Amino acid sequence: MEISQRSLVRFWLIHKRLLISMRESSEFPCTRCGECCRHINRIPQLAPFDLGNGVCRYLQGNLCAIYATRPEVCRVDSMYEHYFKTYYTKEDFYQINTQVCEMLRKGQFENSFYL
In the chain, where are the structural domains located? Predict the structure, then answer.
């Protein structure tokens, strides 16, 4: 599959805007697409929340019905602070999460990526 120069430029501009917003923000720049909540079946901590098809029982539309009290594994910033801060910069951690998010939205997330 060949990618056009226009597509590459568009991707670069979107990626650049996202990186700028990550630097300016103290929180993960979630797009509220809900895709992460539709793929919880491989996350052991979320097994009680799974409807049996990988979708979280608290997903309403694209939003979390228990957002204020959601599990820690659903909180990108909290996971960074408690578990990944010594391994990644915040910008790098956000970028990794953003890449996974994009893969989920495009249906390109392979099972081998799940922990």
Answer: 29-109
pLDDT, greater one: 6 or 85: 85
d(C-alpha 60, C-alpha 64), whole Å: 6
Report which of 105, 104, 1 is spatially closest to residue 114, judged by C-alpha positions: 104
Beta bridge partners of 56: 50
Q: CA 86 → CA 28, 75, 89, 93, distances in Å?
A: 18, 17, 8, 11
Over residues 48-70, mean pLDDT: 96
Q: Which residues contact 16 (CB under 8 A, 6 or more apart)?
A: none
Question: How far is 91 from 98, CA to CA, in rounded Å?
Answer: 10
The pTM score is 0.69
